Amino acid sequence: MKIKVMILGMMMLLLLSGCSDPVQDDLMNYINEDLKDLTALEEEALAEYESVTGDNYEDDYTTYVHIKDVVLPTYRDFLDQLEEVKPATSEVQEIHELYIDAVNMQNNAFIKILAALEQQDYEMVADANEMLADGRAGIRKYTNELEKLADEHNVELTE
């Protein structure tokens, strides 16, 4: 009788362990491991950009040099590392691609801002600012989709 109970218990454990959620596992790895160090790099690049734009703007030359020498290299490093992330499941891959697309849009906007400053073309600056807005909208979409997937797979996101 004890042997039957032990065998039944082991079979239940096997059944329970076989019910794991690969998307949940991938999502937890994606958030806790893959993106862990990357978010700080992204925040650093964006803070550097903000340090020479908007209320912090001094002049075109200062902005140009800072974007060229600090913002773009930092953001490009972030983008390169982001592109190296390879989620295991198609669900997480799809959401990750949203993030890459949005980050590429912002990176291209920074490049366009440099060109606009070189050419003193304020219409190009307006286009670049629109690209930045589109990039931010893409990141919001990514965040919303990530939250939705996390809810669907019982993954709690924290700040």
3D structure, described in words:
This protein is an all-alpha fold. It has one domain (21-152). The chain is built from six helices and no strands. α3 runs antiparallel to α4, α4 packs antiparallel against α5 and α5 runs antiparallel to α6 (122-152). Residues 132-159 form a coiled coil. Keywords: Coiled coil, Signal. Residues 1-25 form the signal peptide.
Task: Give me a quick take on this structure.
With 159 residues, the protein is mainly alpha-helical. It has helices spanning 2-17, 22-34, 38-50, 60-84, 90-119, 122-152. Helix 5 (90-119) packs antiparallel against helix 6.
Helix content: over 70%
Number of helices: 6
- End-to-end Cα distance, whole Å, is 51 Å
- Global mean pLDDT: 90
Uncertain segments: 1-18
Q: Please state the structural category.
A: mainly alpha
**What general outline do the C-alpha atoms trace?**
elongated
